[in-house]
Amino acid sequence: MTTFAAFPSQPVSIEIAGETLAITPIRVGEVPALLATIQPFADQLASADPDWLAILSTHGTALLRTVALASRQSQDWIDDLPLDAAIALATTLFEVNADFFVQRVKPAVQEASLRIHACLDPVPPGRTPSTASSMPATDSPTS
Fold this sequence. Notes:
Oligomer: single chain
Order of helices and strands: EEHHHH
Number of helices: 4
Shape: elongated
Number of domains: 1
Structural class: mainly alpha
Distance between the termini: 65 Å
Largest sheet: 2 strands, antiparallel
Strand content: 5-15%
């Protein structure tokens, strides 16, 4: 399978608020802004079926900004959508871009973070890293 085999070959069309939007995967130039807006709720997107109402209630501004960026629509247009239309749009955007974020970006960011952490906090040769907790004490016979 090629790197981009999971991306739709044609735009996904969705009718929202009387307009037909052609939803395509995000472009590389959009990634920094999208990652910044998604960061507060990224863990919640890992679910196969994200709870959009929960995300909206806890990270509403970030979610709406993400939807505007990913759909390439103005923030005012997104803000004026009925809730059911906004949820349908967010779901479509997630479906079109899920492979990119869940299977590619998240693991790559986690791996890079581990490598950077290892460089910043190296373990000297001959020493083993300390653990957060020690082994539990065991009763030993006193004979």
